[in-house]
Amino acid sequence: MVTLGADRRGETAAAPSRRGRGRPPSPGLEDRRRAQIISAAVAVFTQRGYADTTMADIARQAGIGQGTLYRYVPSKRELLDLVFDYSVEEIIGAAEPALRLEEPPTTEAEVIARFDAAVHAMTELTRRRPELLSLVAVEAAAMDEELKLRILGLESTVARMTARLCEDAQEAGVLRRDADPQVCGLLVTKMLLPVGLREVLGQVDAATRARYRDAIFDFVRHALLARPEGRR
Protein backbone atom coordinates (compact mmCIF):
# COMPACT_ATOMS: atom_id res chain seq x y z
CA MET A 1 0.00 0.00 0.00
CA VAL A 2 1.28 3.49 -0.89
CA THR A 3 1.13 5.91 2.04
CA LEU A 4 0.02 9.52 1.88
CA GLY A 5 3.53 10.57 2.78
CA ALA A 6 4.96 8.64 -0.14
CA ASP A 7 2.51 10.36 -2.48
CA ARG A 8 3.58 13.75 -1.22
CA ARG A 9 7.25 12.86 -1.50
CA GLY A 10 6.63 11.69 -5.08
CA GLU A 11 4.88 14.93 -5.94
CA THR A 12 7.70 16.97 -4.44
CA ALA A 13 10.33 14.97 -6.28
CA ALA A 14 8.49 15.22 -9.56
CA ALA A 15 7.94 18.98 -9.35
CA PRO A 16 11.33 20.07 -10.80
CA SER A 17 10.73 18.02 -13.97
CA ARG A 18 7.59 19.94 -14.88
CA ARG A 19 7.72 22.11 -17.98
CA GLY A 20 7.88 25.85 -17.64
CA ARG A 21 4.73 27.91 -17.25
CA GLY A 22 2.75 28.29 -20.46
CA ARG A 23 4.50 25.52 -22.39
CA PRO A 24 2.42 22.54 -23.55
CA PRO A 25 3.27 19.24 -21.85
CA SER A 26 3.74 17.32 -25.09
CA PRO A 27 4.25 17.88 -28.84
CA GLY A 28 0.98 16.05 -29.45
CA LEU A 29 -0.98 18.54 -27.37
CA GLU A 30 0.75 21.44 -29.08
CA ASP A 31 -0.28 20.15 -32.52
CA ARG A 32 -3.86 19.55 -31.40
CA ARG A 33 -4.11 22.97 -29.82
CA ARG A 34 -2.73 24.67 -32.91
CA ALA A 35 -5.23 22.80 -35.11
CA GLN A 36 -8.01 23.83 -32.70
CA ILE A 37 -6.98 27.48 -32.97
CA ILE A 38 -6.75 27.39 -36.77
CA SER A 39 -10.16 25.75 -37.04
CA ALA A 40 -11.66 28.43 -34.81
CA ALA A 41 -9.97 31.19 -36.81
CA VAL A 42 -11.30 29.79 -40.10
CA ALA A 43 -14.83 29.82 -38.67
CA VAL A 44 -14.65 33.33 -37.20
CA PHE A 45 -12.79 34.96 -40.11
CA THR A 46 -15.39 33.49 -42.47
CA GLN A 47 -18.32 34.72 -40.39
CA ARG A 48 -17.05 38.18 -39.46
CA GLY A 49 -14.22 38.96 -41.82
CA TYR A 50 -10.63 39.48 -40.78
CA ALA A 51 -10.95 43.19 -39.98
CA ASP A 52 -13.91 42.74 -37.62
CA THR A 53 -12.48 39.74 -35.78
CA THR A 54 -10.62 40.07 -32.49
CA MET A 55 -8.31 37.60 -30.82
CA ALA A 56 -10.91 37.39 -28.04
CA ASP A 57 -13.46 36.18 -30.62
CA ILE A 58 -11.10 33.43 -31.75
CA ALA A 59 -10.23 32.36 -28.21
CA ARG A 60 -13.93 32.16 -27.40
CA GLN A 61 -14.63 30.09 -30.52
CA ALA A 62 -11.74 27.75 -29.67
CA GLY A 63 -12.86 27.40 -26.07
CA ILE A 64 -9.55 28.58 -24.64
CA GLY A 65 -8.32 31.62 -22.75
CA GLN A 66 -6.74 34.56 -24.52
CA GLY A 67 -3.49 33.91 -22.67
CA THR A 68 -3.34 30.41 -24.12
CA LEU A 69 -4.11 31.74 -27.58
CA TYR A 70 -1.31 34.30 -27.42
CA ARG A 71 1.17 31.66 -26.27
CA TYR A 72 0.59 29.83 -29.55
CA VAL A 73 0.00 32.77 -31.88
CA PRO A 74 1.41 36.21 -30.98
CA SER A 75 -0.89 38.27 -33.22
CA LYS A 76 -3.97 38.18 -35.41
CA ARG A 77 -1.85 38.83 -38.48
CA GLU A 78 0.29 35.78 -37.76
CA LEU A 79 -2.88 33.77 -37.23
CA LEU A 80 -4.07 34.81 -40.68
CA ASP A 81 -0.79 33.45 -42.07
CA LEU A 82 -1.49 30.10 -40.38
CA VAL A 83 -5.03 30.06 -41.75
CA PHE A 84 -3.75 30.92 -45.21
CA ASP A 85 -1.17 28.12 -45.09
CA TYR A 86 -3.82 25.65 -43.91
CA SER A 87 -6.20 26.68 -46.70
CA VAL A 88 -3.48 26.39 -49.33
CA GLU A 89 -2.53 22.91 -48.10
CA GLU A 90 -6.16 21.81 -48.39
CA ILE A 91 -6.51 23.24 -51.91
CA ILE A 92 -3.24 21.74 -53.14
CA GLY A 93 -4.03 18.47 -51.42
CA ALA A 94 -7.30 18.24 -53.33
CA ALA A 95 -5.69 18.59 -56.76
CA GLU A 96 -2.37 16.85 -56.22
CA PRO A 97 -3.52 13.18 -56.19
CA ALA A 98 -5.11 13.57 -59.62
CA LEU A 99 -2.27 15.56 -61.18
CA ARG A 100 0.71 13.69 -59.72
CA LEU A 101 0.40 9.99 -60.47
CA GLU A 102 3.22 7.51 -60.90
CA GLU A 103 2.28 6.51 -64.44
CA PRO A 104 2.00 9.26 -67.08
CA PRO A 105 -1.06 9.25 -69.35
CA THR A 106 -0.61 7.49 -72.68
CA THR A 107 -4.03 7.92 -74.30
CA GLU A 108 -6.52 10.73 -74.81
CA ALA A 109 -8.95 8.96 -72.48
CA GLU A 110 -6.34 8.86 -69.71
CA VAL A 111 -5.56 12.57 -70.11
CA ILE A 112 -9.24 13.47 -69.93
CA ALA A 113 -9.69 11.18 -66.92
CA ARG A 114 -6.81 12.89 -65.10
CA PHE A 115 -8.21 16.35 -65.80
CA ASP A 116 -11.66 15.10 -64.82
CA ALA A 117 -10.36 13.86 -61.47
CA ALA A 118 -8.54 17.15 -60.79
CA VAL A 119 -11.53 19.31 -61.73
CA HIS A 120 -13.86 17.15 -59.66
CA ALA A 121 -11.55 17.30 -56.64
CA MET A 122 -11.21 21.08 -56.82
CA THR A 123 -14.90 21.79 -57.39
CA GLU A 124 -15.88 19.32 -54.68
CA LEU A 125 -13.56 21.03 -52.21
CA THR A 126 -14.96 24.48 -52.99
CA ARG A 127 -18.50 23.09 -52.78
CA ARG A 128 -17.90 21.48 -49.39
CA ARG A 129 -15.64 24.17 -47.96
CA PRO A 130 -16.12 27.46 -49.82
CA GLU A 131 -14.75 29.28 -46.79
CA LEU A 132 -11.24 28.12 -47.67
CA LEU A 133 -11.28 29.82 -51.06
CA SER A 134 -13.00 32.84 -49.52
CA LEU A 135 -10.21 33.23 -46.98
CA VAL A 136 -7.52 32.86 -49.64
CA ALA A 137 -9.08 34.94 -52.42
CA VAL A 138 -10.97 37.58 -50.43
CA GLU A 139 -9.69 38.07 -46.88
CA ALA A 140 -6.01 37.41 -47.56
CA ALA A 141 -6.01 39.35 -50.83
CA ALA A 142 -7.31 42.42 -49.02
CA MET A 143 -4.49 42.42 -46.48
CA ASP A 144 -1.14 43.33 -48.01
CA GLU A 145 1.24 42.73 -50.89
CA GLU A 146 2.92 39.78 -49.18
CA LEU A 147 -0.29 37.76 -49.07
CA LYS A 148 -1.24 38.83 -52.58
CA LEU A 149 2.05 37.41 -53.81
CA ARG A 150 1.43 34.20 -51.90
CA ILE A 151 -1.96 33.88 -53.59
CA LEU A 152 -0.23 34.15 -56.95
CA GLY A 153 2.16 31.49 -55.68
CA LEU A 154 -0.77 29.17 -55.02
CA GLU A 155 -2.04 29.68 -58.55
CA SER A 156 1.45 29.03 -59.90
CA THR A 157 1.74 25.80 -57.90
CA VAL A 158 -1.51 24.41 -59.30
CA ALA A 159 -0.51 25.59 -62.78
CA ARG A 160 2.86 23.81 -62.50
CA MET A 161 1.18 20.56 -61.49
CA THR A 162 -1.20 20.89 -64.43
CA ALA A 163 1.71 21.71 -66.73
CA ARG A 164 3.49 18.54 -65.64
CA LEU A 165 0.44 16.54 -66.70
CA CYS A 166 0.53 18.37 -70.04
CA GLU A 167 4.24 17.57 -70.44
CA ASP A 168 3.58 13.88 -69.78
CA ALA A 169 0.76 13.91 -72.31
CA GLN A 170 2.97 15.63 -74.87
CA GLU A 171 5.73 13.06 -74.41
CA ALA A 172 3.17 10.31 -74.97
CA GLY A 173 2.03 12.00 -78.20
CA VAL A 174 -1.40 12.84 -76.81
CA LEU A 175 -0.87 16.60 -76.47
CA ARG A 176 -0.14 18.71 -79.53
CA ARG A 177 3.57 19.07 -80.24
CA ASP A 178 3.26 22.80 -80.88
CA ALA A 179 1.55 23.41 -77.52
CA ASP A 180 3.49 24.95 -74.64
CA PRO A 181 2.79 22.78 -71.55
CA GLN A 182 3.43 25.71 -69.19
CA VAL A 183 0.89 27.89 -70.98
CA CYS A 184 -1.57 25.00 -71.14
CA GLY A 185 -1.25 24.43 -67.41
CA LEU A 186 -1.87 28.10 -66.67
CA LEU A 187 -4.88 28.27 -69.00
CA VAL A 188 -6.56 25.24 -67.46
CA THR A 189 -5.89 26.60 -63.97
CA LYS A 190 -7.37 29.97 -64.93
CA MET A 191 -10.49 28.19 -66.18
CA LEU A 192 -10.99 26.68 -62.72
CA LEU A 193 -10.99 30.03 -60.93
CA PRO A 194 -14.43 31.38 -61.98
CA VAL A 195 -16.33 28.38 -60.66
CA GLY A 196 -14.39 28.57 -57.41
CA LEU A 197 -15.23 32.24 -56.93
CA ARG A 198 -18.88 31.62 -57.74
CA GLU A 199 -18.91 28.85 -55.15
CA VAL A 200 -17.78 31.42 -52.58
CA LEU A 201 -20.68 33.67 -53.60
CA GLY A 202 -23.16 30.80 -53.46
CA GLN A 203 -23.98 31.12 -57.15
CA VAL A 204 -23.14 27.59 -58.30
CA ASP A 205 -25.46 24.62 -58.57
CA ALA A 206 -24.92 21.16 -60.04
CA ALA A 207 -25.86 22.30 -63.55
CA THR A 208 -23.39 25.21 -63.43
CA ARG A 209 -20.60 22.93 -62.23
CA ALA A 210 -21.35 20.55 -65.10
CA ARG A 211 -21.20 23.41 -67.63
CA TYR A 212 -17.82 24.58 -66.35
CA ARG A 213 -16.53 21.02 -66.39
CA ASP A 214 -17.71 20.47 -69.96
CA ALA A 215 -16.17 23.77 -71.06
CA ILE A 216 -12.78 22.79 -69.64
CA PHE A 217 -12.89 19.39 -71.32
CA ASP A 218 -13.97 20.89 -74.64
CA PHE A 219 -10.98 23.21 -74.44
CA VAL A 220 -8.62 20.34 -73.64
CA ARG A 221 -10.01 18.13 -76.41
CA HIS A 222 -10.20 20.69 -79.20
CA ALA A 223 -7.34 23.06 -78.38
CA LEU A 224 -4.72 20.92 -76.67
CA LEU A 225 -4.96 17.29 -77.69
CA ALA A 226 -3.18 16.03 -80.78
CA ARG A 227 -5.45 15.33 -83.71
CA PRO A 228 -4.79 12.14 -85.65
CA GLU A 229 -4.95 12.63 -89.40
CA GLY A 230 -8.53 12.65 -90.57
CA ARG A 231 -10.01 13.51 -87.17
CA ARG A 232 -11.98 16.76 -86.91
UniProtKB/TrEMBL annotation:
Listed name of the protein: HTH tetR-type domain-containing protein
Domain of life of the source: Bacteria
Residues of the DNA-binding region: 54-73
Biased composition (Basic and acidic residues): 1-11
Keywords, ordered alphabetically: DNA-binding
Pfam families: TetR_C_24, TetR_N
One Gene Ontology MF term: DNA-binding transcription factor activity
Domain HTH tetR-type: 31-91
UniProt organism field: Mycobacterium talmoniae
Residue numbers spanned by region Disordered: 1-30
InterPro entries linked: DNA-bd_HTH_TetR-type_CS (IPR023772), Homeodomain-like_sf (IPR009057), HTH-type_TetR-like_transc_reg (IPR050109), HTH_TetR (IPR001647), KstR2_TetR_C (IPR041490), Tet_transcr_reg_TetR-rel_C_sf (IPR036271)
